[in-house]
Amino acid sequence: MNSFKEQLGINVISTPLNNHNLPLFLNEKISDNVRKFHSSIENYQITPLISLNNLAKKLNIKGIFVKDESYRFNLNAFKSLGGLYAIFKIVCNKLDSDDSQITFKDLQKPQIKEQLKDMVFITATDGNHGKGVAFAASKLGCKSIVFMPKGTVEVRAEAIRQAGASQVIITDLNYDDAVKKAAKMARENNWYLVQDTAWNGYEDIPKFITQGYTTMSNEAYDQLQEYGFEKPTHLFLQAGVGSMAGGVLGYFANKYNSNPPITTIVEPKDVACIYKSAFINDGNAHAVTGNLQTIMAGLNCGAPNTSTWPILRDFASFYAACPDYVAARGMRIMASPIDDDKKIISGESGAVGLGLLSLLMEKEELNEIKEAMNLNSDSVVLIFNTEGNTDPIGYNEIIYDGKNPSLFLEGR
Ligand SMILES: Cc1ncc(COP(=O)(O)O)c(C=O)c1O
Hints:
Layout: E1 2-3, E2 11-14, H1 28-39, E3 49-51, H2 53-59, E4 63-68, H3 80-95, H4 104-107, H5 110-116, E5 120-124, H6 128-139, E6 143-148, H7 154-162, E7 167-170, H8 175-189, E8 192-193, H9 204-226, E9 234-238, H10 243-255, E10 262-268, H11 273-280, H12 309-315, E11 318-322, H13 324-335, H14 348-362, H15 367-372, E12 380-385, H16 392-399
Parallel strand pairs: 4-12, 5-6, 5-8, 6-7, 9-10, 9-12, 10-11
Antiparallel strand pairs: 1-2, 2-11, 3-4
Helix pairs in contact: 1-9, 3-6, 3-9, 6-7, 9-10, 10-12, 13-14
The chain binds pyridoxal-5'-phosphate.
Residues 77, 79, 126, 128-129, 196, 238-245, 298-299, 301, 349-350, 386-387 line the site of pyridoxal-5'-phosphate.
């Protein structure tokens, strides 16, 4: 493990690839089936892969591609990919149906809905995952109950209600404790816990969720070919518990025969559980605890997903813990495109990867890390904008009022 000196408030470490545990549950065939499932859902559209040519020129990189998940199912975030697929699998299992022979539409037939009407799905969420669960459950005529952590902005709770939740409760717990509460309620009431993170003894449903996320990497792969690139050289993947990063990286590890792009896992500085686990470097996942604060609500998770941690451990090379200003910078860059680059509306949790990339390419203080990452004019970088504007007040404060400014304003 190599630990770089902290620069600009950013901590980065690198680890060599381990490469021994190819996550077969994310292989191409499975991902193709998952994508087929998603594409059978009404409103399905491939989300855009946006090439930021002028930004790439400015940063002296060959290509920057942003997969814009703010367009996913009109739900403003990628997360529904996981909830939808997991609920589909759970329901097929309950009906004893072969999931390769049945579509989501079939499950919406009145006689099937009648059989499902007593199913209750429960989850805890910072917002985006809850929307996906509520959306999927309501389409099938099932109930959904959603717990949210303290500090959740009302607009995110309302978006979950609008997506079809039966009940949304903002708790006085942090995210990790809200998950424990949802798990307890599920046990006590015989409800189905659809949680986007795994722990010992609770792995099957989170695996379906992670498989669901591969649709966005599967689409991005095809879209990159259309742009004439066989393979991105670099991935920047933001992590809360690491299910999303695990799904994407696991897909590319399979796709490129254990030789994925050079991958950096990016987290909020004070909630960097993947970074901490890589730093301790004993092979195990380690949680961070305490009063966890960040503007990146979707990444504000203290305990890694135990099923995807091995993927991040074995196939990522860099782990970055970033202060909030890095995310705010990424949001502003996407909101103010250069010349004819397309504008991208990115929320706090969607933007931190691009914020970090821009700093690496522009700030001398980070040269050593940039060079270690082999980022240069031959690089083709793939980033996932995992959410749009999910908190309009917070978004305006950052974009219009310049909240969370870069460190570089100081002293001017
Ligand atoms: C917008 C957004 N991006 C990224 C993530 C991170 O996903 P994970 O918790 O699987 O690491 C989340 C999680 O909720 C999110 O809402």
